[in-house]
Amino acid sequence: MKGIIFDVAADVVRADYGDDTWDDLLDAVGSDGVYTALGSYPDADLVAIIEAAAARLGVSGATATVMVGRQGYQILASRYPRLVADIPDLRTVLASLNTIIHPEVLKLYPDATPPTFLLRSDGSDLLMTYVSERSLCRLAEGLTLGAADAFGERVSVTHDSCRADGDAGCVLRVHWSDGDDPR
Ligand code: HEM
C-alpha cells in the first residue's frame, strides 16, 4: 500500500487524538512511522495500526477502518485537488474512481494497486462490487461516506455481501436519503 494512505491514517488519528496517540499506535505495532508518499509499505502494517487504534477506542476494526476512510476522504481530496476539482456530487466521484481518480493515481505511482469498482444501479441505490487484492471494503465504505459528507449528501452504505462474512465478494449498497439525490 502506498505511503499516502498511511499518511492519511496518521492525519486522521493526530487530528482527533493527538500526536502522542499516533506515536503510541506506531509503538504498539513496532513501526518507525516513516511513510513517504512514493514508498510502498506492507498492507499488514496498515491493518495492524488500525486494529491498535480500534483496541484503544474500544471499537471493532471494521468501525475504525470506516472512521479512517470517512475522515480521510477530505484529506485525500485536499492533497490531490486536481483529481476531484470538477466533480459535482457523490455519484460522479464513485463513477470517476475507475475512469479518472485511480488511473491518475497510477500515473503518479505506477506500482500502486488501487481497487476497481463495478457499478450498477438498483432503483435509486448504487451497487458497487469491490474488486481488490485486499480486503479493505470497510475503507471503501468510509471513503464513500466521506465523499458524501464533502458534497452535503446523506447516504447509508451497507454490505449486500462481504468477504468478511464468508461471501465470495464484497458488494456495497449506497442508499441516498429521500430528497438528496435527484436522479
Ligand atoms: C480524492 C480521491 C481519491 C484519491 C486521490 C485516492 C487515492 C488512492 C490511493 C493513492 C490508494 C493507494 C493504492 C495503493 O497503495 O496501491 C487508494 C486506495 C484505495 N482507494 Fe482510493 N482514492 C480516492 C478516492 C477513493 C474513494 C471515494 C473510494 C471509495 C470507494 C476509494 C477506495 C479506495 C480503497 C478501498 C483503497 C484501498 C486499496 C484496496 O482496497 O485495494 N478511493 N486510493
Features:
about 180 residues; alpha+beta; H-NOX domain; 2 domains; 4-stranded antiparallel beta sheet; binds protoporphyrin IX containing FE
How are the SSEs ordered, and which strands pair?
Elements lengths: L2 H15 L1 H11 L13 H15 L3 H19 L1 H4 L5 H19 L7 E7 L2 E7 L5 H14 L4 E7 L8 E7 L7
Antiparallel strand pairs: 1-2, 2-4, 3-4
Helix pairs in contact: 1-2, 1-4, 2-3, 3-4, 4-7
What's the CATH architecture name of the largest domain?
Alpha-Beta Complex
- Ligand names: protoporphyrin IX containing FE
Q: Give the biggest sheet.
A: 4 strands, antiparallel
Structural class: alpha+beta
CATH topology of the largest domain: H-NOX domain
Instruction: Supply Rg.
Output: 16 Å
What's the total helix number?
7
CATH top level of the largest domain? Alpha Beta
How much strand?
A: 15-25%
Q: Low-confidence stretches at least 5 residues in length (pLDDT < 50)?
A: none
Provide the succession of SSEs.
Answer: HHHHHHEEHEE
As laid out across the biggest beta sheet, the strand order is 1-2-4-3
Q: What's the overall geometry?
A: globular
Number of domains: 2
What's the overall average pLDDT, rounded? 94
Description:
The longest helix is centred in the middle third of the chain and has 19 residues, at 61-79. The radius of gyration is 16 Å and the shape is globular. With 183 residues, it is an alpha+beta fold. It has 7 helices and 4 strands. It has a 4-stranded antiparallel beta sheet, with helices on one face. It starts with a helix and ends in a 7-residue tail after the last strand. The protein folds into 2 domains: 3-71, H-NOX domain, CATH 3.90.1520; 89-176, H-NOX domain, CATH 3.90.1520. Helix 1 (3-17) crosses helix 4 (61-79). The chain has helices at 3-17, 19-29, 43-57, 61-79, 81-84, 90-108, 137-150, and strands spanning 116-122, 125-131, 155-161, 170-176. It binds protoporphyrin IX containing FE. Protoporphyrin IX containing FE (HEM) is lined by residues 1-2, 4-5, 73, 76-77, 80, 83-84, 93, 97, 101-102, 105, 112-115, 132, 134, 136, 139-140, 143-144, 147.
